[in-house]
Design a protein that fits this description.
Length: about 450
């Protein structure tokens, strides 16, 4: 639907309501968009308005403060969101300015703020007149310049002194669509031919043999072979986990914090289903998503709904040859996919994630067989959750020695085209070092 039709006002009003709910109720934007009742034809526009208003929230919020003669009342969160939706259209979306202003002014009445139409019109018109001055002034305000909260800017500057600005810019970019070809069903070359026949341009990743990058994102219903399990949507960086596990048929593998099941599926694909894979997640609804993903792929795993940090409640006592801890984290490496992370995350959330990650490592390391490998993964770029977490674990755990297989990889957003990810792989020695020498582990 064209944005300058009357219904365009309804979409903008709904976008403002959803943005306000993300901020007020701390509900992820994806959940709200999935539950929205706007017409199917309007859903792409609604998604673009909501996600991009959140992506540029800190810049738009700063602009609104500069453009208003006096602050809005505390309870006018939907109107404040509508002003940001309006400013977004004039800067980031391909919406004709007259249509953006007209539809956003009309949306004010749909929010029950009929008299606010004049205010919305005045703010948007003033921005058009003063845009260049505002853009110059924003260069001196980090939150406005980089469209990130101050705490995250400072954390990235401290952890990545040579790359922090590039990470922030990458977070503001539109995310690419990476696919994982099911190499147990077909070859990547054959699937690239299928994409070409369907009119979809794509390129192969040079160093991940299952990964394909679409030239232009499309819905999964447009992907040939998706329903039949020939391909899945999974970022390039996430696809590196299976290779780092060094999988082989016949292994016993634990995928902890497994939902929604992308890595579980990749593990099984890598061995053509010939492994005993346990997928553990504490949320029953999320465990069901793992089941649905595996059903589509025609694969099976032992699905367990339980707290991975309490193995006594679910583990059968037999050690695992491979363990993947896909740890809950700040998700600061996938901000471009989930821009609401910028407004939902706070430093205390990182503190809680760090504590949970440490509990997972301590709880699951004893489940690893001698000679086995554990891969610790996060979609974070914060050192506390990544290298700092592994350093602390190694200092505490006596069964790991630097000479016996400890390595790591920190991927920043847009490096080789993937999301921000961290991996550490740790191997449990076959020999136990004691004061009297080296002895075989039982």
């Amino acid at each position: 639907m064209s944005p300058d039709t009357p219904a365009g006002a309804e979409v903008r009003a709904e976008a403002a309501r959803l943005v306000a709910r993300v901020l007020d109720e701390h509900i992820p934007a994806d959940e709200l968009l999935a539950a929205s009742r706007v017409a199917e034809r309007d859903q792409p526009l609604l998604g673009a308005l909501v996600l991009n208003t959140l992506r540029w929230h800190y810049r738009l919020e700063w602009q609104v403060r500069r453009l208003l003669a006096r602050p809005l009342a505390r309870g006018e969160t939907a109107l404040a969101a509508l002003l940001r939706v309006g400013l977004l259209q004039l800067q980031e979306l391909r919406v004709p300015p007259h249509a953006a202003v007209s539809a956003t002014v009309d949306a004010a009445a749909l929010l029950g703020a009929r008299r606010a139409g004049g205010l919305v019109n005045a703010v948007l018109r003033r921005f058009q007149r003063e845009r260049q001055q505002l853009e110059r002034a924003a260069l001196d305000v980090p939150e406005a310049r980089f469209a990130h909260p101050t705490w995250l800017i400072e954390a990235l500057r401290a952890d990545h002194p040579d790359a922090w600005a590039r990470i922030l810019d990458a977070n503001n970019a539109a995310p690419p669509l990476w696919l994982r070809v099911n190499l147990a069903r077909t070859t990547r070359a054959a699937y690239l031919d299928k994409l070409a026949s369907a009119g979809l341009g794509a390129t192969a990743a040079p160093d991940v043999d299952s990964a394909v990058l679409l030239a232009k994102p499309v819905g999964v219903e447009s992907l040939p072979g998706f329903a039949a399990g020939e391909v899945s949507v999974q970022d390039l960086s996430a696809q590196r986990a299976a290779a780092l596990l060094e999988l082989a048929p016949g292994q016993r593998v634990l995928d902890a914090c497994a939902a929604p099941g992308g890595k579980t599926g990749h593990i099984l694909e890598a061995v053509a289903g010939r492994a005993e894979v346990w997928a553990v997640d504490r949320d029953a609804e999320r465990t069901q998503r793992v089941r649905e993903n595996l059903d589509r792929l025609g694969l099976a795993a032992q699905l367990v709904t339980a707290d991975a940090t309490v193995p006594g409640a679910w583990w059968d006592g037999r050690p695992f040859d491979r363990i993947l801890i896909d740890a809950p984290c700040s998700a600061t490496g996938v901000v471009r996919r989930h821009p609401d992370i910028k407004v939902l995350r706070r430093p205390p959330d990182v503190d809680r994630a760090v504590l949970l990650q440490a509990r997972l490592l301590r709880a699951l390391w004893p489940l690893l067989a001698p000679g086995g490998r554990l891969v610790y993964a996060t979609c974070s770029v914060l050192r506390r959750e990544n290298g700092g977490q592994i350093d602390a674990f190694r200092a505490e755990e006596q069964g790991i020695e630097p000479a016996e297989g400890v390595a790591s990889l920190q991927l920043k957003p847009e490096e080789a085209g993937g999301d921000g990810f961290y991996y550490a792989w740790l191997e449990k020695p076959r020999l136990l070092r004691t004061p009297s020498g080296l002895h075989s582990r039982p």
